[in-house]
């Protein structure tokens, strides 16, 4: 800094009173404004697309259903239903309302006597839990690993990327199945297994971004000014790769829900929880298809399809924002 | 001694025999292969023995064609690269041996201005945050007042209007002014300006250049200008160094080098600058051939393959030292076998004094 015998245009400022109080407020306001503007702008571009809007409505609907499941569901998902007259367990199944208008169950019941509508409503909880948790962790771990590998380069990059290569060598569904079989069938293990495999693609893409960003002159300028590595990663690299992390998060929702349904369908789902995948599995186990009980397996299939398609549509819409060449 | 203490007429920066080599294949596989086959790694000799002094308030121009190592030299000067060999002394302190404190002080005193103003500002940071960033890193007080003053100095008026703007809302000239304000806000003593106006519209250049002239004067700055534009360097610099393939081939006061170039390469460079007068007659010096291989460096004088004044085997076998010469009037030093060494150089060599302070000593050792 300036000493007295050196010409400086800042000389008089060093004696002046501080104005830190005013500054800190301004700084927060500026950061807030940046976030509001960026998110606002991207939101506008995102909702410009009708399909994306529909996908968001669908996802919001399922989220609301998942949150208010206990209020919406007429019965417990794993509560056996009894025939109305006698206290007999339903031996077969009950037809849904649109086949037998006398039926007490809107979507009928399963062979075990579970209410299908209630199972469907509670099943949305598992799907969204898996989807959102997997998305957050996939994007988070992938971004962190990618930024570290890309920024530091050299041996760190080599090590991290060989781990990613190793994970790329493992097929998603079979590995999740084996991991769940080893760890035991529970929803948390399924989520864990999905995350372990899914962060690989995010890490790859974020790394390549970080590799090109760290050579950009604004990063060099920060280095010349004496910024620490953490400062550069958090202030200069992370904000510039964040749209990509969001994009991969959005796609991760869909993949995770599909993987969970697949694993549950094979019979490695959480036995104490209802998910759309376990519904499909039990309908297969009771040969619903052979008896033509389509109202048992079609609704969970449609729900899976709707949520997954919504996830992909939002991801695709976001991709167009982050990569303007697609527009 | 603190790196912040200024002294009168001091030599701010001493660069001695600076070398920066980049390894070609750095991956695990190729290094494994190398250890199996026993082959040596290939290196690009980006900078290969550059020496110069920079006094306080002095401006030095580094010129040369693309790939001659001028940008790598500039980046090494502000420690964006760790030099492979040689030393850079800032106020007498060797930067390769500096501890964290000294390095932090150096970071406050050395800044860089980059070529492309569209790339040198973070698109997600406001003008205020961009300029305030160095202040926050070094915990400097009076952030707002300093940022305001720096913007005013860079002729962005009124400064408060620019605080909340993003780079994409600014023109190229305004961005470069913001970059200059960022470099100045820490009140540095030394700036490396890498092609500061080459990406700007011609109409904006004069304004930015006069700003940089004012900055050199009012801050008493030492500046290293890197450019391929000799007319710009002639306008801005006290001294000029011409680089070819990682080495300085001619160095001296700007007027001497431009008006009276001695090295064949310098002559061809200066001849390539267009003169806005069709009537003027001058000897054409055209360069044949290509720049040599930076990995497998040519022996002897690196320019020998393209030189119009080739004088025989000595050019291919012996590397010419950069030294004062006796054959001409100018005060510049030239690395060429065409000329006889000046008397004092001969004396120094005969006396075998280990005068490392002399520019020629390092290259004469080869």
From TrEMBL, chain A:
Keyword Lipid metabolism: no
Membrane topology of the entry: Multi-pass membrane protein
A Pfam family matched in the record: OppC_N
Compartment list: Cell membrane
InterPro entries, per database record: BP-dependent_transpt_permease (IPR050366), MetI-like (IPR000515), MetI-like_sf (IPR035906), OppC_N (IPR025966)
One GO biological process term: transmembrane transport
Transmembrane feature ranges: 50-73, 126-152, 172-197, 245-268, 293-314
Chain ranges of the ABC transmembrane type-1 domain: 124-315
Superkingdom assignment: Archaea
Keyword Membrane: yes
GO CC annotation terms, alphabetical: plasma membrane
Keyword set, alphabetical order: Cell membrane, Membrane, Transmembrane, Transmembrane helix, Transport
Family of this protein: Belongs to the binding-protein-dependent transport system permease family.
Protein's UniProt name: Peptide/nickel transport system permease protein
From TrEMBL, chain B:
Keyword field contains Protein biosynthesis: no
Residue intervals passing through the bilayer: none
Molecular functions per Gene Ontology: ATP binding; ATP hydrolysis activity
PROSITE patterns: ABC_TRANSPORTER_1, ABC_TRANSPORTER_2
Residue intervals of the ABC transporter domain: 13-270
Keywords on record: ATP-binding, Nucleotide-binding, Transport
Entry's Gene Ontology BP terms: peptide transport; transmembrane transport
Keyword Nucleotide-binding: yes
CDD domains named in the record: ABC_NikE_OppD_transporters
Position of the signal peptide: none
InterPro entries in alphabetical order: AAA+_ATPase, ABC_transp_ATP-bind, ABC_transporter-like_ATP-bd, ABC_transporter-like_CS, Oligopep_ABC_C, P-loop_NTPase
Domain of life: Archaea
Any coiled-coil regions, as ranges: none
Pfam families registered for this protein in UniProt: ABC_tran, oligo_HPY
Family matches, as PANTHER family: TRANSPORT ATP-BINDING PROTEIN
Protein name: Peptide/nickel transport system ATP-binding protein
Lineage start: Archaea, Methanobacteriati, Methanobacteriota, Stenosarchaea group, Halobacteria
